[in-house]
Specification:
The chain is mostly beta strands and 372 residues long. It contains four helices and 26 strands. Residues 1-22 form the signal peptide.
């Protein structure tokens, strides 16, 4: 007697896709509504007896064409390189998928890259064991030149999929790669920095402590913290640099850095008045950019050599930001509930003007779209 009966069903979909960023803005041209003809081969539908469990090991991902190679670059399980040869052979409208690999905690993930019909290039991650850790990545060409780094700083806790819809344009990418060897390298890292947020007792001050281990071994051009919410505004700390080399795409070399820059940014909402301090490993400030009396944003700029001389034993840069809130600091901190190290709560994001948007990629895949 047969234990189960299988029936194979094949579906073909034409899926309309509408892109927007996580702050609720639409692209300049409404033509960014992509029409993707996705022909997806579905798995057989099997009807089992009550004594059997359906085999979940099959996935329509088995039928995807994988582009290039995705490999770890060290033993940490946090650093990866996706190499895509002959990238210029992919025309507008192309969809690229990387191989599946396992990361530091055993979770498997892979990348999707979408070359939009109007020229936008998006990079997305499918991470099989949410929450998705904060991550950063940058593009490199065969001359080791790099584009500026992007960070997914505010990721919803319950999602498996997210990404940036417009990292660069197709025209810029073709120019960046050149004709001689148009190989695209995508350097990707699950970040190890930590962020703690607390209210100072008896004061209308929210104190944010940001620690970046081995900071000078990273590409910090730029490097961002995860997002956090104060006074219902989504904020991000950003570390950037000035370099001797004038070219914005020059190969990354920490020895080329002359100045370290720190500031806060927010796409929408007013940034509360704040100070920025650099701390020694013992917690003592060695450089401070004080709060501005006129309420404008603070920028800290300091010589790189001073920073290097005061790094912690593990090469950690320690940054403290004190934000002066306009109301009850308990209410300001209430917006932080649900961050969980990854993203603000839905209500907090909406109150700060950061409306999260989503992009459907195929019948089963829904992506949260980030904006750097």
């Amino acid at each position: 007697m047969l234990a189960h009966t299988c029936m194979c069903v094949f579906f073909f979909f034409e899926v309309p896709v509408q892109l927007s960023d996580c702050w609720g803005r639409r692209p300049k041209q409404q033509a960014h509504s992509l029409s993707l003809s996705l022909y997806i081969l579905q798995q057989p539908i099997c009807f089992h007896t009550n004594k059997q469990k359906q085999n979940k090991s099959t996935s329509m991902g088995l039928f995807k064409k994988r582009t290039g190679t995705l490999n770890a670059t060290d033993e940490s399980g946090r650093h990866f390189l996706w190499t895509i040869p002959k990238f210029t052979s992919f025309a507008a409208g192309a969809t690229l998928d990387s191989e599946n690999v396992a990361c530091f905690n055993g979770a498997k993930f892979h990348f999707h890259m979408q070359v939009g019909t109007t020229g936008d290039i998006g990079l997305y991650i499918h991470y099989k064991k949410p929450p998705i850790p904060k991550y950063s990545y940058y593009f490199q060409n065969s001359k080791n030149e790099i584009m500026r780094q992007h960070t997914a700083h505010s990721i919803p806790e319950n999602t498996e999929r997210c990404g940036h819809w417009n990292v660069c344009t197709h025209r810029d990418m073709i120019s960046f790669l050149g004709e001689e060897n148009p190989t695209l390298r995508i350097y990707f890292a699950f970040d190890e920095d930590t962020l703690t947020v607390k209210r100072l007792p008896g004061e209308n001050i929210i104190s944010v402590l940001w620690t970046i281990p081995h900071v000078m071994s990273h590409n910090i051009n730029p490097y961002s913290s995860r997002g956090y919410v104060v006074d219902y505004t989504l904020l991000v700390n950003r570390l950037d640099v000035k370099r001797r080399t004038p070219s914005p795409i020059a190969p990354w070399d920490v020895n080329d850095v002359t100045t370290v820059i720190l500031f806060l940014f927010s796409r929408k909402g007013k940034i509360p008045p704040h100070s920025i301090e650099l701390l020694t490993e013992a917690g003592e400030p060695y450089y401070t950019a004080p709060k501005k009396d006129d309420g404008t944003a603070t920028t800290l700029m300091v010589d790189k050599d001073l920073v290097v001389a005061n790094l912690g034993a593990d090469g950690s840069l320690i940054v403290r930001v004190n934000l002066h809130t306009g109301g009850n600091p308990l209410e300001a901190l209430a917006a932080l509930s649900g961050l969980g190290g990854a993203a603000p709560a839905e209500g907090a994001a909406a109150a700060g003007g950061g409306q999260r948007t989503r992009w459907r990629w195929g019948e089963r895949e829904l992506y949260n779209v980030m904006d750097d």
